[in-house]
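pinned: reference chain
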Amino acid sequence: METWLIVVIVVAVLIVLALIALAVAKRGGAAKARKQEQAREHLQEAQLRATRAEKEQALADEQAARARRERAEVEERAAQAEREAQERLSTAAQERSAAEELRAKAEKLAPGLSHDGHSGSAQDADMTQTIRREDIRTDGTEGTGGGATRA
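pinned: its structure tokens
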């Protein structure tokens, strides 16, 4: 074979190898570009999800705070109702004591009169409890006009 033919073949092989290398480089660059685009999409999706997670976290925190606030309000109302009930019990005890003192004074002033006019302290206590229950049923306000008792 002649030398110029060998040189032409070698040059042709080199050109073919250069074209193959260029095609592989372009394909690698295209794959790299696709991967970068895919990575950008993943980053955008991650940012959207992180934003949604922060929003959900804020809503959950707000809901928990609202629940704690409502629980505190309920506990405060219950404590207030218990204080009012204790005050009513104290008032009832004072009224009962005052009634007993007045009954004792009446007995001293006119012995035997309380047996004619009333059946005794047990019935009076029942009447007082009945009146107090009626007062309580009127939404916590005194239904008999400021605590006056019925005759």
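why pinned: Confidence is low (pLDDT under 50) at residues 137-151. The chain has three helices and no strands.
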